[in-house]
Amino acid sequence: MLGMEHPAAMRIVLALAGTYWQQTRGNEAAELQDQVLQACITSFGPDHQKTLKAMDTLGGSRCYQGRYKEALMLHEKALEGMTRNLGADHEDTLRATDNLGRVHYRYFRFDVAKDLHAKAVDGMTKVLGPTHIDTLNAIDNLAMTYLELGGEFLEAAHEMMLQVLEQRTKKLGKEQPYTLLAICNLARIKSALGDMDEAERLMRATLPIAERNLGENHFGTLSGRVHLAQVLVRQERYGEAEDIFTDVIQRQRYKSAARDGEHPDRIIAMWYLLRCYQAQGKFSDAIRMCDEISDGLSTIGGHGHPFAKRLLDRRKELLDLQGPGSLIIPETPLNPAL
Questions:
Q1: Segment 49-81, tens digit of pLDDT
Q2: Average model confidence (pLDDT) for the chain?
Q3: Could you read off the pLDDT of 87-111 as tens digits, one per residue?
Q4: Single pTM value for the model
Q5: pLDDT at 174 over 70
């Protein structure tokens, strides 16, 4: 019987972890990846290429779990080792560069993320080719960073996502999950550019496919519904948006991926619901949602995330908007963790 230190056993375990991720069983996937990393350290040493790749893979899972501080440490360590041992232009180093950019994105360090994703796109285009799946993923990440930066970056983001969607459709098929993600991301950019009708059309055409192929509680399906609701908010269709947000944030939808704490996707959906409440003047509901988000932040890793301050500032703003004549909800101490 093969032990975990055997290369074949490692490959099998990582493949199983990948399957778990597709099933939204994120905690189980990360546990297996951590076992592989520890086995690599024992068998090959901390600086071996297999160890560094396992480290980078686990970093990606920690990021999706909302354990951003740990993810940042893993990706930085992996990238440093790969750059030293393999060179800055090796494909594994470029993937690690792109992955590190995703963590900075989640810390709202969009300029840092932009530079990392742009470096990954440039390197992968040369090493792997402009239509390689990993190159397309890096372009997707760069486009989403451009979306957050807004303004002059939006048109470039739009062109990038058109390119990604075209190539993923050709290579993966029109109903493959990454193709559906490209459609959703393109719709988000169109919404930011003011084309609400087309954004809504794209999302409504895609969601039934995601529900059929992935399931109602898959990360991608839930995320697509959240972004559709965001479009509805921009169209001032608050009731429809609120119904979607309220359904999406049901805790049981995330239990397989957030067994030991709150899931960051649920926190994001609650934040959007908070803003929907505020837009309708439902300040008490918005403040209640602030406090629920605060409780959720305390369950996932890392300290000092900028979102914690943003949430605290929003709560104070809501109290001011609520006015002195309204029922004042006592402030819940905010744990600055995300």
A1: 999 999 999 999 888 888 888 999 999 999 999
A2: 88
A3: 999 999 999 999 999 999 999 999 9
A4: 0.88
A5: yes
- Helices 7-22, 26-44: axis angle to 10 degrees equals 160
Whether the CB-CB separation of 123 and 138 falls below 8 Å is answered with no
How far is the C-alpha of 228 from the C-alpha of 244, rounded, in Å? 9
Q: Which value, to the nearest 10 degrees, does the dihedral of the CA atoms of residues 79, 218, 146, 276 take? A: -130
Are 203 and 231 in contact, with CB atoms under 8 Å apart?
yes
Alpha helix stretches (DSSP H) within the chain = 7-22, 26-44, 49-64, 68-86, 91-106, 110-127, 133-149, 154-172, 177-192, 196-213, 219-234, 238-248, 264-279, 283-297, 306-322
Length of the chain in terms of residues written: 338
Closest listed residue to residue 323, CA positions, set 272, 281, 276: 281
Q: Enter the tokens of residue 323.
A: 């006015």
Burial 209-244 (b: 16+ CB within 10 A, else e): bbbeebeebbbbbbbbbbbbbbbbbbeeebeebbeb
